[in-house]
Amino acid sequence: METLTIPALRRAIESRDGQTLAGFYADDALLRIIDQENPPSRPQEIKGREAITAYYDDVCGRTMTHSVDTGIIEGDRLAFTQTCTYPDGKRVFCSSNLELSGGKIARQVSIQAWDP
After folding, report:
1. Of 84, 85, 112, which Cα lies nearest the Cα of 96?
2. What pLDDT shows up at residue 1?
3. pLDDT number for residue 24
4. Which one, of 19, 31, 24, lies nearest residue 2 by Cα?
5. Where would I find the H helices in the chain?
6. 8 Å CB contact between 93 and 81
7. Mean pLDDT, rounded, of the chain
8. pLDDT tier at 2 (50, 70, 90 boundaries)?
9. Are the CB atoms for 10 and 20 separated by under 8 Å?
10. What angle do CA 79, 55, 112 make, to 5 degrees?
11. Of the candidates 49, 3, 55, 14, which has an alpha carbon nearest to the alpha carbon of residue 28?
12. SS3 for 109?
């Protein structure tokens, strides 16, 4: 498995490599997503690497482009932003904050804003 770094994360996201992305997560990781359908009081919560793998299989299987705009890692924290574009031009902006444990993602909160 590849070591989690900003360049490795960028490569996996931009190449839509869901298996590599899922490999960055701890077995008991939690991915929390906040967007127009999942407000802060009821965020989508994806628990465990198996469920996270299924999530990334779906997202990475869609016809769209992903671009990591910024990324920073310090100690056990990582943050990045990305922009996704669908073939019809619709865009999604995502800002993610991650908590790392043992070099793996233990917790992630992603906030997404979609074009109307």
Report:
1. 112
2. 67
3. 97
4. 24
5. 6-14, 18-23, 49-60
6. yes
7. 96
8. confident
9. no
10. 45
11. 49
12. strand
Residues in contact with 85: Cβ distance below 8 Å, sequence separation at least 6, in sequence order: 64, 65, 67, 91, 92
Q: Give the confidence band of 45 by pLDDT, cuts at 50, 70, 90.
A: very high
CB 79 within 8 A of CB 72: yes
Give percent of the chain above pLDDT 70.
99
pLDDT tens, residue by residue, 83-112:
999 999 999 999 999 999 999 999 999 999
Contact present, 79 and 71 (Cβ < 8 Å): yes
In angstroms, rounded to a whole number, what is the distance separating the alpha carbons of residues 1 and 54?
Answer: 18
Q: Show Cβ contacts of residue 58 under 8 Å, excluding neighbours closer than 6 positions.
A: none
Q: Does domain 6-114 have CATH number 3.10.450.50?
A: yes
